[in-house]
Amino acid sequence: MLGKLLAVSMLPLAVEACGNKAPNVAAPGTPAPTGSVLPRPATPEDALRRLQEGNQRFVAGTPLHPNQTVELRQQLTGSQRPFAAVLGCSDSRTSPELAMDAGIGDLFVCRVAGNIAAPADTASLLYAQAALGSEVLLVLGHDDCGAVKTAIDVADGKTSAGEFAPLTDPIQPAVAEARRTGATGAALLHEAIAANVRLVVAALPGTSAGLSQAVQAGKLTIRGGVLTLSTGKIDLLG
Ligand SMILES: [Zn+2]
Question: What are the tens digits of pLDDT across the range 30-88?
Fold first, then answer.
């Protein structure tokens, strides 16, 4: 682990050197051209802002496709230092790298249907923070989520969970919370998707002492967001 941490600590300089050699590095204060190597965000707030800026480019249809140069790819073969960890849904329409216009080595991503935090996912997210230095953890839900739809159908008795129970059971508290709003139909699904993200965000520090300590120390920000498929926009919750 020590060797890995040393390698991680040396990486910013290495990436900087790599970036300086690349012809398409954005000069300070100028708009970054497509294919730029962007400097790593310095704080959790900067990291969250980077995700939001990337999403704005995705929404506008003007992605930079940053951090995808051959030089950077080669530089990152021995180590990584992703600035953000993402717990997203497996849904084929919700790729975090696309939705937030990120590149190689930027995001440490766990994807599972319904963006639930199973123990292995929580441990993976802790690894991203503790070993790799990720400064923001984004739980990313989305509209039209099949896992949440199925959880509602199970709750309504329209279907049985069967082999999908490991996905739908953890979503039931969100369905119950959404139902308390009085919503039905599409509105209930909308509420349940948001509630599921909120509950996962709230639960993560409680299920991982390491994540809790990182938040307390100001090293990590945990946020939730919901991606609207039609616009591509990610709305942060709370
Ligand atoms: Zn989904």
Answer: 788 899 999 999 999 999 999 999 999 999 999 999 999 999 999 999 999 999 999 99
Q: Yes or no: say if 73 and 110 are a contact pair by the CB < 8 Å rule.
A: no
Q: How far is the CA of 80 from the centre of ligand 1 (A)?
A: 27
Q: Which residue has the tokens 């963006």?
A: 115
Domains annotated for the chain, with CATH where assigned, are: 2-26+35-237 (3.40.1050.10)
DSSP 8-class letter at 143: T
CA of 111 to the centre of ligand 1 (A): 10
Cβ–Cβ under 8 Å, residues 134 and 110: no
pLDDT in tens, 5-16: 434 333 333 333
Q: What is the DSSP string of 7-56?
A: HHHHHHHHHHHHHHHSTTPPPTTSPPPTTPPPPPP-SHHHHHHHHHHHHH
Averaged pLDDT of the chain = 91
Q: Ligand 1 is a single-atom ion; what residues have CB below 5 A from it?
A: 89, 91, 145
pTM: 0.89
Angstrom distance (rounded) from CA 79 to CA 37: 17
Taking each helix axis from N to C end, the angle separating 146-155 and 185-207, rounded to the nearest 10 degrees, works out to 100
